[in-house]
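User: Continuing from earlier, I have the next pair ready.

Assistant: Great, send them over.

User: Here they are, in order.

Assistant: Folding the first of the pair now:
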Amino acid sequence: MVVGELTEETDVLIIGGGPGGYVAAIRAAQLGRQVTLVEKEDLGGVCLNRGCIPSKALISAAHHYEAASESVYPGISTTAELDYPKVQRWKQTVVDKMTGGVKTLLKGNKVTVIKGEAFFSRAGEARVMTETEGHNYRFEHCIVATGSRPIELKGLPFGGRILSSSEALALEEAPKSLIVIGGGYIGVELGQTFAKFGAKVTIIEGTGSLLPTIEAQLTRLVQRSLKKYDVDVVVNAFAKSAKETKDGVELVYTAGDAEHSVTAEYILVTVGRRPNTDELGLEAAGVKVGEKGLIEVDAQCRTSAPNIYAIGDIVPGLALAHKASYEGKVAAEAIAGEASAVDYRCIPAVVFSDPEIATVGLTEEEAKSKYGEVVVGRFNYGANGRAVALAADAGFVKLVAQREGGVLAGAQVVGMEASNLIAELALAIEMGATLEDVALTIHAHPTLGEMTMEAAEVALGRPIHVVGK
């Protein structure tokens, strides 16, 4: 702190303006608090600017390009021409609209927004540095929501033709070839998207399968789809080194006991993300940082410093934007004296692959471990009229429930619009619904949503549109 410099005061200081931080700011302001939000880059954070939103825009564009190139409907022939720079400009309009909306919401809720970098100088105080000056802020409460950054592999530093997901999403031209290191959800989503845009894609994954944290029965359809786009998948393989060539970059990797190499225009590294907690001065604020840079918090997102809260990618658990937003609301309400607390029983997770994968609650094995006997109902897209009419009959909806009482414990969906279908199932688990509740809910016909009802009927032993065992 500069001697003699004035110190400004605020009820709630929020560091980070991503989906956790800006939501926390709005909720705290709604609850009558004076809120100051500090964001060093762009409002909306990685999610809106360099992650969730731009990636889903490109994924949607790739779907439409594929559909325009080769119609799945007999009797309809199509041709398509790709103008990728124009696609990128459109993607940016999507990003600008969403980030502009965040600015409007913060202004409408009278949140003070500062573009700058914040770090703790002592307990209850933070230093905020803008491009031109520095200010000290004394806060009653603080919410840290600084998010995460891509992990950089030793021997493959980002730069030039070695990209993180942020640079890959900003490429001015669609790559002709691409090596993806990491077969998790980001690697699969972007690898498949660029393959649809015409790139020759190779995915290098260190475990024995793609999407290793997801049940194999859900990922099989995605792996089959990757073969359709001529994507080469190498599992149990580890990147070793890379060097630029005349027209691209060569990757050397190990698989088994041998070394191999593959060349492409770019390498995309998607092996995980690291929490942004190393330059915040957390020790000065009395905040304890645990393993891998994550901050331990209680059920109200409170850190070891009673007036400082942490949310999103910097705390243990899934690194998901909607989890961060949820935690932001809980933290803001806790600051206001409400009894809010996190309940992670049914956080949905989605892979925007083709076909999509969505899960919520417990898997079948997890439910068996927790409850003993369970009942399972599975209904295939191929038996649903709407799915067949959409030429999207690959996939299924699966429900898992406790045998005694039939309370829904988990659900998994793979297929078209899985990301939307999972919302009803998340609500059902949240409210403690039973299979009977789901089966007795009248669903509109013909819709994909009917499969939720049908899967519940299968689990209850009274299926209508499949022959029971």
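And the other member of the pair:
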Amino acid sequence: MKKLLLSALVISCLSATGCGKPTDKPTPMPNPPVVVNPTSKRPGSIGIVGDTSNVTKPVNGGLVLMGGGADVDAAFKWMIERSGGGDVVILRASGTDAYNPYVNGLGTVNSVETLLINSKELANDDIVAYIIRNAEMVFIAGGDQSNYMNFWRGTKVEKALNYLLTEKKAPVGGTSAGCAILGSLYYSGETGGVTSAATLANPYDSNVTLYNNDFLKAPFLQNVITDQHYLTREREGRSMVFLGRILTDWNIAAKAIAVDERTAVCIDAIGKAQVYGDYSATRPYSNAYFLVTDATKKPEQFVANTKATWNNGEQAVAVYEIPASVNGGGNFNVTNFSFAQATGGKAYWWSINNGVLLKKAQ
């Protein structure tokens, strides 16, 4: 079992020496330490397949940013290889354990377990945190990223995830909402979502809820915001507004990694990113995008209730587009976001003129 077995020492005083007379009232005993019973139910667990005993395997760090929709088999296989075949933990705040048989069928692992962590109480449970810390791979499912923020931020689950990311360096990934929270800058969606049309018409729309470096500490994703379902839901405009707001409000020349459905950006331990996807005749490959802002190119017009303008000679934001491949498309160095080092894609300039998104090749 992946539980820490704590022993409680019960001290009984049967002699009169040092204990007072037999007729004295017994001294109240202190509360014993918590005993984790390996046969008791695992808090938050809604299913596990494989060996329930904990194993320790050597891991190779990596991040997976998946864009939602159909899952990308190749990206999960990439993570499983980096897990050393250890214990896989799926995290979510709603839904089922459907990932358990799916992930288990993609490679050889010791176990796959789903934890449904839908309260602060569960997120602060020692056993829950222990299970996460002892995982060799963690994947955060889709759903509602505001639940992850509200339930997990500032808790033992957050600390356990950051331990995996920064110290143990186990592979960690997420899809859709699970991908949304991996950047140090993130959009919470707590008011129900926002579209490109709404943000381009009003960059200070009340639904633009952005947060800065108060949650996860993923390598290479500091001052990076992610977006998902990118082309499918036409989110290019809103990610531009997010970047413009971050530059305007916080003076941070942020970057973005945006991923379409059925697509995953896999970032290895040294910051090399490739784009994976699963192809079929009815589901052709899609793309991922790497967006880079410049501190000297601030939006010309980001005002409440006014159409956005971020033009800078139609060169406001540099964008590198990489199509997916089952074996990993392109190469992009996320340690420096250098287009000169990027391969397998195309470079563009994106800008906004009076609420209209413009794109042109570099």
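Worth noting for the second one:
The first helix runs from residue 73 to 83. Residues 1-39 have pLDDT under 50 and may be disordered.
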